[in-house]
Design goal:
This protein is mostly helical and 94 residues long. It contains 2 helices and no strands. It has helices at residues 12-36, 52-85. Helix 1 runs antiparallel to helix 2 (52-85). The radius of gyration is 23 Å and the shape is elongated. 1% of the residues are buried.
């Protein structure tokens, strides 16, 4: 006699694809923040410029962003290919 609503179920593949597309949308924002972060660093107490750490940091962040974009694009593409191969329920009319 209890009227319980059915639990909300999201298909695992579509949920993962949506989260990966969200990550792909968020990656440029994170990248801009990480690249602009050295601006906030305090200058060294020595009179000589301390740019070595900043340059190394920028190249490491740049490399990690490229790797992250590659991994995310691989997952988004593989999930999109898998969803295209699966027949839809609405395609039975043909």
């Amino acid at each position: 006699m209890t009227n319980r609503a059915a639990p909300v179920f999201l298909a695992r593949k579509s949920y993962r694809r949506r989260r990966m597309t969200d990550a792909a949308r968020l990656l440029p924002i994170v990248g801009v923040f990480l690249i602009l972060l050295p601006i906030l660093w305090q200058p060294a107490s020595t009179p000589a410029p301390d740019t070595g750490y900043g340059v190394a940091y920028l190249f490491i962040v740049w490399t990690l962003l490229i790797i992250a974009a590659r991994v995310i694009s691989h997952f988004v593409a593989s999930e999109a290919d898998a969803s295209e191969d699966a027949p839809d329920a609405g395609d039975d009319a043909a």
